[in-house]
């Protein structure tokens, strides 16, 4: 899969991914609107070209409160995200080229006020979905928000994603309607975070194209 060319989907007005992006950005704005005053930290896992966070911050009144780390493996996407952050005047956005599954990338900012796991859960095994969601109890601070996405292809894992999060102390804030095939959810963490363990691999990125093979 060419993950740089994949982003061309966002240029089509009828793209479900463009609709997903709008929903994600709205959830990010909601999280910023309800966060306490002062500096905020954000983490984006498999950030792609940074559309989720950079797009939401561009005109938000709290844009300069946010210090964020976006982690992405494809260096072409990293370059696009860096250009977008610079063009938007967001010096607090750091885009890192590297393996987004490694906890080492997030140790400096975790637990964070905002954790984005968008475009990830449909590209890893179900067991790794649960493993990553469990790691959110280390990545997200008390009162922080996790914004996530997952397709609703059969079998629909979205209800299980909600259950796994809610079993771990996350409160459901918002979930897109079942008819929306590219689901978006937002959960707030209500308990004390566990320490983030360095050197841990949180998931293995497989790719939806590989996962769908018979």
Describe the structure.
With 214 residues, the chain is α/β, with parallel strands linked by helices. The protein has one domain (5-194, 205-211): Rossmann fold, CATH 3.40.50. Helix content is 31%, strand content 23%. It has helices spanning 16-34, 51-57, 75-87, 126-139, 158-167, 208-211, and strands at residues 40-45, 66-72, 93-97, 112-117, 140-151, 170-175, 182-189. A seven-stranded mixed sheet has the order 3-2-1-4-5-7-6, with helices on both faces. The radius of gyration is 16 Å and the shape is globular. The two termini are 17 Å apart. Residues 45-144 form the Methyltransferase domain. This is Methyltransferase domain-containing protein. Pfam families: Methyltransf_25. InterPro entries: Methyltransf_25 (IPR041698), SAM-dependent_MTases_sf (IPR029063). Keywords: Methyltransferase, Transferase.
């Amino acid at each position: 899969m060419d993950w740089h060319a994949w982003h061309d989907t966002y240029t089509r007005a009828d793209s479900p991914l463009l609709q997903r992006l709008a929903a994600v950005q709205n959830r990010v704005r909601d999280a910023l609107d309800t966060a306490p005053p002062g500096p905020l930290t954000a983490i984006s896992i498999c950030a792609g070209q940074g559309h989720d966070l950079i797009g939401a911050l561009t005109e938000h009144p709290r844009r300069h409160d946010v210090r964020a780390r976006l982690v992405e493996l494809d260096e072409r996407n990293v370059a696009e995200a860096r250009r977008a952050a610079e063009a938007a005047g967001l010096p607090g956005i750091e885009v890192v080229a590297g393996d987004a599954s490694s906890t080492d990338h997030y140790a400096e900012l975790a637990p964070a006020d905002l954790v984005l796991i968008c475009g990830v859960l449909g590209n890893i095994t179900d067991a790794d979905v649960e493993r990553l969601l469990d790691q959110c109890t280390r990545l997200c601070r008390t009162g922080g928000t996790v914004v996530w996405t997952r397709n609703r292809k059969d079998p629909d894992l979205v209800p299980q994603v909600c259950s796994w999060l809610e079993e771990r102390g996350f409160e459901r804030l918002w979930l897109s309607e079942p008819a929306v095939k590219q689901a978006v959810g937002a959960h707030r963490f209500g308990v004390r975070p566990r320490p983030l363990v360095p050197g841990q691999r949180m998931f293995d990125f497989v790719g939806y194209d590989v996962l769908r093979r018979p």
